[in-house]
Write a structure and sequence with these properties.
The complex is a heterotetramer, with 1 copy of chain A (243 residues), 1 copy of chain B (759 residues) and 2 copies of chain C (92 residues).
Chain A (H helix, E strand, L loop, with lengths): L20 E6 L6 H10 L3 E6 L10 E4 L19 H11 L4 E4 L1 H8 L6 E3 L7 E9 L15 E8 L3 E3 L2 H9 L3 E5 L11 E5 L5 E4 L18 H14 L1
Parallel strand pairs in A: 1-2, 1-3, 3-4, 4-11
Antiparallel strand pairs in A: 5-8, 6-7, 6-9, 9-10, 10-11
Chain B lengths: L1 H5 L9 H6 L14 H11 L5 H10 L2 H4 L4 H9 L7 E3 L6 E6 L2 E9 L1 H6 L1 H17 L4 E11 L5 H21 L3 E8 L8 E11 L14 E6 L9 H7 L18 H16 L5 E4 L4 H12 L3 E5 L12 H6 L5 E6 L4 H10 L4 E8 L4 E5 L2 E6 L1 H5 L15 H6 L11 H12 L8 H4 L10 E3 L6 E4 L7 E7 L2 H6 L1 H18 L3 E10 L6 H21 L3 E7 L3 E2 L2 E2 L3 E10 L16 E5 L10 H7 L11 H16 L5 E4 L4 H13 L3 E3 L7 H6 L6 E5 L4 H11 L3 E7 L3 E4 L3 E4 H16 L1
Parallel strand pairs in B: 4-5, 9-12, 17-18, 24-27
Antiparallel strand pairs in B: 1-2, 2-3, 3-6, 4-6, 7-10, 7-11, 8-10, 9-11, 12-13, 14-15, 15-16, 16-21, 17-21, 19-20, 22-25, 22-26, 23-25, 24-26, 27-28
Chain C lengths: L2 E8 L6 H12 L5 E14 L5 H15 L5 E7 L13
Antiparallel strand pairs in C: 1-2, 1-3
The chains are: A alpha/beta (243), B alpha+beta (759), C alpha+beta (92).
The complex binds adenosine-5'-diphosphate and magnesium ion.
The site of adenosine-5'-diphosphate has 18 residues of chain B, from strand 4, strand 5 and helix 18.
Amino acid sequence: MSVGTGAGGDAGTGGGSGLGRIGVVTFPGSLDDRDAQRAIRLAGGEPVALWHRDKDIRQVDAVVLPGGFSYGDYLRCGAIARFSPVMGTVVEQARLGMPVLGICNGFQVLCESHLLPGALTRNDHLHFVCRDQRLRIENANTAWTGDYTEGQEITVPLKNNEGGFVASEHTLDALEAEGRVVLRYVGRNPNGSRRDIAGITNEAGNVVGLMPHPEHAVEALTGPTTEGLGFFTSALKSLVAAS
Amino acid sequence: MSERSERTVMHSLDTVKHAEQTPDTQLPWAELGLKEDEYGRIREILGRRPTGAELAMYSVMWSEHCSYKSSKVHLKQFSEKAPQSDAMLVGIGEQAGVVDVGQGYAVTFKVESHNHPSYVEPHQGAATGIGGIVRDIIAMGARPVAVMDPLRFGAADHPDTRRVLPGVVSGIGGYGNCLGLPNIGGEVVFDSCYQGNPLVNALCVGVMRHEDIHLAKASGTGNKVVLYGARTGGDGIGGASILASETFDDTKPSKRPAVQVGDPFQEKLLIECTLEAFQERLVVGIQDLGAAGLSCATSELASNGSGGMRVELDSVPLRDSSLSPEEILMSESQERMCAVVEPEKVERFLAICEKWDVTATVIGEVTDGDRLGIFWHGEQIVDVPPRTVAHDGPVLQRPYARPDWQDALQADDPARLPRPADGDELRAAVLALVGSPNQADKSWITDQYDRYVLGDTVLAQPEDGGMIRIDAETGLGVALATDGNGRYAKLDPYAGAQLALAESYRNVATTGARPLAVTDCLNFGSPEDPAAMWQFAEACRGLADACRTLGTPVTGGNVSLYNQTGDVAVHPTPVVGVLGVIDDVARRTPMAFADEGHLVYLLGDTREELGGSAWSQVAHGHLGGRPPAVDLERERLLGEVLVAASRDGMADAAHDLSDGGLIQALTESCLKGGRGARIVVPDGMDPFVFLFSESQGRALVAIPRSEEVRFNDMCGARGLPATRIGVVDGDAVEVQGQFTIPLAELRRTHERTIPELLA
Amino acid sequence: MPRVVVDVMLKPEILDPQGQAVQRALPRLGFEGITDVRQGKRFELEVEGPVDDAVLARVREMAETFLANTVIEDFTVRAAEPDPAPDAGAVA
Amino acid sequence: MPRVVVDVMLKPEILDPQGQAVQRALPRLGFEGITDVRQGKRFELEVEGPVDDAVLARVREMAETFLANTVIEDFTVRAAEPDPAPDAGAVA
Ligand SMILES: Nc1ncnc2c1ncn2[C@@H]1O[C@H](COP(=O)(O)OP(=O)(O)O)[C@@H](O)[C@H]1O
Ligand SMILES: [Mg+2]
């Protein structure tokens, strides 16, 4: 995975082709929305800002639900954001096959919206944790991981308070059996996640949720690595392939 | 609740008219913290007795916390002695100073204390500390881009530290993380002097374009005053005067004022909607609501502006409908701001607030004339010249005197302390040092802070300074560090303040950034104690003198007095933050020794200086003697060399030397890079002094062999001593002829202390 | 004002790190004999009219779709008992 | 197992950002008529012996010093009612 590590200006805005418009939703309290936009740009795509109150998702080809504390994460992480107008459209389009990536808070929103099974609970050590996390790609066939290889290990930042993935044993078994565990923590499990799960996908492989932040590992200057960029390049390629 | 019941209840509304008619009515001025002569002055200013609401305003604005009445006469020096600096766009006096960093960008930064509230309720106290300083920065027109948190706690193994520290850290993290501001540095110091009085300081830095600087003033007759953000509740009523001005006495829980709860989500919305309003040029003047709430915001806005102001207090949206007008004026409810907006732009301003789900209300307007009038149900309850509330508070010339114990303390030289005699004892002393709570790894704390959010963090803890990129095209960035050493300041407050500046300056330069400007938080004991007042006066004098020498003006800061438990004050603790600029962040110098074969150079001179040192504390629990000598010209020279080495790509890593001396810095750089080092003690140098002395003006640098000649030539030409002391190599730290410590052992010792104490 | 109380607790099979942390801390503070601790949430909703069956049914719906995440949590809904004096009054 | 319930709520005069967030969201979800929401904590403690006055007194002490932060919170302690069936079963 090699990436230009330069200034992160507007690497490829649009690129001319109609494809590669990736929406990034801003909820009140979203924090990593600009970072997701930058990652999309660095990957060669065109980031499109989406607003939580709008049903209209501006004809984007894919959507990222970014990290942050939507609505302060006050009730449960993602619980309030799930009911925003934009999510109605995102859920509808996701069911029709549009690639959707939920990062951290976005993952929590996807679980609350029942686009992904399970839930994310308080870290077992009860602290917010920010660290560079080693991960293993378990499924390189989703819309967001095609540029990786199965078994590849990457390091990207992890930062959250409620990142422990839980689901019933039955659901966990099914996720494993169907190859829907996309990412696993390597080394110390940072939050008590069941079966070291860091990210999962839906049955169709177009919706992926993960707790770590690939959008913060896209420039050597500001991230621990540039190994997160692959999520965004993968999506752009999958869009081209699907067209 | 007792606060409320103790308050004198006005049975009927105490209007201005009523006050004129009832000159003899007794008001509870003493309970509100005013002195008799101060009350007399208020009567004189008004030509009558104040109303209850006026009294509330004066009392809170004339408190130590808001008026700086004890410190003003000393703080003056920061302006009087300020070095000429073209970089200063806005100086002391505004919410925060503004510094020109080039390319049309301006940066504003400030450090503030939230010490007392953080002892009462660590989580909320610290959280609202972050909230307050962030609002100061937004109120200058800037987008906040990072926070830092210099912290001091009681003894690491004291049971109450287990209550206070985790709460403070979760409060800072909970609030800052939720705002989406990276935490890029700070300090954690343990010392039993802070047992009943932790120091929780918070720094925020923001960035704007020059043309976006906003000031807190209400001008333009007819312009509207808009209050927006959280609804007003009974939070911290009287908090500013009672909580911050008087010694907190934990034996009387009934005296505990209401604690404020922070709502970082609300603040995040406040940031976004304020910045959007700035962008559309909707704001004439703006002020955050902090201590003293609306009393402060309205009087300062009006006082700084050209006219007067009229406020309809009934329009203030309330969380608690039973609040009296006096309480509304004093409430310190968090997450509120006040903007002055031209009438034709109000609609758009309110629409932006609505977009962000922020409650916003027009509560008044700018008037001609020069009075601040506040109305309640149509009746006037305040009629004051705003300047007298906001700026003409009392100024005290508190007596101060060098304490009689100072000589004995300085005479108690650490030279008498037993020292490690051979390699084995040195080895043990090194492990004891790097595993001691003050010198140990702080990741247990800093891992609770998001350092990545916003995507522009180039350096963060444990680096010497935090560094933020502010322009992605050009690579322009700023670096910040905060430092303070209460032990040095206790031994000599004049030198201690200068050493705090020197260290912070050095930390910034080590990253490759050019130091530009200073903010400070002066944490001291009771100003009513002549000894504490002397410490304060000396520290101010020292800092002002040093800033002049180094050419780095103080742009703003904060004073926190009454930091004591009973009669025992904390160490005088001036915390100094330095801001530097770097033209291209890609040139930054990190601290890690990561490359096998690089040469380790020690810059500067090492003398036997152990007074106030970490070694004397860890090995002997000793504090005495004199702190290390201050040599500001040397600091400047060292800084120039470090910046040049970064710019010209000569140094791959650098780490400044501070508490713990050379061996501490070497340990940190080796552990960060995952590489060992072989070190030779220079000829004629005592190994113990070499490793543990805290002589100032020094740094370690790692130089690729290919750069050695060029680097040496540069140091030689500039006259900075540079000694090659070893090489980055292997997986142990070896001091030849003395001892070897495998990295793994060093790491274990360095990293386990804090988790074991707190987990 | 009439109030409805919604209690939300993690399902028994879901790990409760907060409850566990409390339980582990208790002996250190000198409290013995507590064999398990679970920590959940309590919501007090103030409603406009009287708390009748219709109101309770609507609050139950609210809890089901919003206040609780039924993947991991159980809830109960009931009318509030007439205000109990809190054990710790206004200590301040 | 006998259980004691400790309810911890923010004092009425203290800002409750969590409760407010819930309250603001309700109308958007189509739930009207809720005039205030407060969110607190509920602890369920399983005790060894029967829940007598001595046990309740000790739990009260626990709540006072540990479970609640009495600077900003009030609490109540009581023996648990015999297990109510939760309103929502195992939906997952
Ligand atoms: N409370 C804190 N918050 C954030 N960073 C911290 C905190 N305490 C210490 N750090 C960071 O840990 C590193 C080491 O701290 P310290 O030894 O005090 O540095 P120095 O001696 O260079 O001033 C620095 O990067 C500092 O910013
Ligand atoms: Mg340093």
